Amino acid sequence: MAITTFAAIYIGSYEVSLKIFELSGKKKIREIDHIRTRLELGRDTFHSGVIGSDLVDELCMILADFARIMQGYKVKDYRAFAGNVVGEAKNMLFILDQITTQTGLHVATLSNSERRFLTYKGVAARPGFDKMTKDSAAVIDVGGGSLQITLFINGRVVTTQHLAIGTMRLMEMLSDIEHNVLHLENQLEELVDKELAVFLAQYMHPGEEIKNVILMGDYIAEIMRKISRNGEEMHEVEATRFINFLKKLDKKSVEEISEILNLSNEKDILVLPSVILYAKLTQAMHAQTIWFPDVDTSDGIVYDYAQTHKIVRTSHDFDEDILSAAKNMSMRYMSYSQHIDALTDMSVLLFDAMKKIHGMGKRERLLLKVAAMLHDCGKYISLANSAICAYQIIRATEIIGLTHLEREMVASVVLYNSTPLDPYEELADRMDQHSYLVVAKLAAILRVANAMDRSHRQKFKNVRVVLKNKQLVITIETMSDIALEKGLLAAKSNAFESIFGIKPVMKEKRVYT
């Protein structure tokens, strides 16, 4: 294929960046330029919730310069995104409109889930990622507004947790006292310790060790260069060497740390919380190795673009990450059982048999599997109100690989598995019409599948599903009495028929021993 020049723009809490890439069939992805401009939008958003007009004007000027640079490189396509620093601002719509009007660039906002997954994609594409996560690993992405930790055990995702202790947010928390204390690092350490203690108590057992820490964030490249004996770039180091070096920076001023790391800005206040976070995180994990993949959101943006346009292929199974996280979440809320496996298999069987009827694809099939795995998690909170509890749990839990909207959709499928479907008008503020239709269809399929194993006894074997005229014929082999399942299926058939125009019918094939 011909070489395509692509640009990735990302607007973060304290920096606006532009990366130019060449994409081709042979060399795949090659970075040819990287421009970073400091702009502390987070100070406004995290403090007042509104980005001031002066900063918006400065942002537009930076992006206009980026647009000219892109023209110089003859960029054929681009993607421009802004993180939560813009997404959480009360004047977000006006900011995006001014950017388009003044620069011609179209910027979309990313939720935390979307941005972290883009970065994760960029990391997972790096050689050695699957080897690093084969045993136990933590992928830690430290940003200005927050950090995210994804734990791997035996190569599978266990959990993803989002902590609102990014470097700039920490400094903003202490903005009122930073000039009145002698050692600001003490207050920073207290804040970090408090948040990490909750995470460790919930997700790591006493004495548990994470073999490898995959660390992303600012200043890590400079830290690794200083640790390197010859001052060259280094991407992997023993955790003890990494921690010992960071300990040498303890109690030092911003200016002293900046000088040691050879930073161009000797008054870069964010280096202080960064160093503290890296030290606390790596110590808490009891890691053996620190791996720095040198990846940021822009790398994830280009990788996602290249993957979508079939320029690159990945060996990493991102869908498996989602399913693994869902399974562990189900186990955490003590709802995982043989019934969950049976329900998931039955749901997929119905989905596959109805392809010509429902018109949905692979992504919706994945969402159905996640919903089936999580449909009982609300019983951990309340047996009487399990549906609404499950809905709230799923909405509030990061599942790596699912967007914010997809999480809302999965939660809604679980909710409407056991409660009547609300009209679209009542959900219009949460999802668009297409997403609503997907939720309605998946919930209808899940309801029928659930009715087939309502007793949680897995009475069926060799289930076969066939479309015949206006009926979805479900033929099952069983040795058990299935009067309960037949009755429940009949009760749920009207709602199913109203959505798909076909009626589910169960046919029994008696098996004798």
TrEMBL record:
One of its GO terms (molecular function) is pyrophosphatase activity. Pfam families: Ppx-GppA (PF02541), Ppx-GppA_III (PF21447). InterPro entries: ATPase_NBD, GppA/Ppx_hydrolase, Ppx_GppA_C, Ppx_GppA_N. Residues 327-482 form the Ppx/GppA phosphatase C-terminal domain. Transmembrane segments: none annotated. Residues 29-309 form the Ppx/GppA phosphatase N-terminal domain. CDD domains: ASKHA_NBD_PPX_GppA. Belongs to the GppA/Ppx family. PANTHER family: EXOPOLYPHOSPHATASE, RETROGRADE REGULATION PROTEIN 2. This is HD domain-containing protein.
